[in-house]
Write a structure and sequence with these properties.
A 4-stranded mixed β-sheet has the order 1-4-2-3, covered by helices on one side. The radius of gyration is 16 Å and the shape is elongated. Helix 2 links the parallel strand 2 and strand 3. The chain is an alpha+beta fold.
């Protein structure tokens, strides 16, 4: 099993849904400049109420080798989750409650 690694998501709706759906996964919210919309202000308020740090650096920390088409001025760092290799899957589940998700032909993984 591969160790968890941090995940970076961007865009108003992905960040807002992460905060609404599973705030325990959100490590930090990062905004650019002043809140440019009511939705970004809602993100900031929701994160603050949940005790999630909100930072506002001069530039958003874009992922290396990957430039988001439209970050909309907001990003979030999520706690990673463990993944496994095909060999791990073929050996069988570690527990009886293992959930397996298989996806194919995903056009935009950030909307997933």
């Amino acid at each position: 099993m591969a160790p968890p690694r941090e995940i970076l998501i961007w865009g108003i709706h992905p960040v807002l849904e992460a905060l609404r759906g599973n705030p325990g996964l959100v490590r930090e919210v990062i905004t650019q400049g002043r809140p440019s919309s009511a939705k970004i202000q809602e993100i900031i308020d929701l994160a603050s109420c949940q005790g999630i740090p909100v930072s506002n650096p001069p530039h958003l920390p874009l992922p290396a080798g990957e430039v988001p088409a439209n970050h909309q001025g907001v990003m979030a760092r999520l706690k990673g989750f463990p993944t496994c290799t095909l060999e791990d899957l073929l050996r069988g589940p570690e527990t009886a409650q293992t959930t397996l998700v298989a996806l194919d032909s995903i056009q935009d993984p950030h909307n997933l």
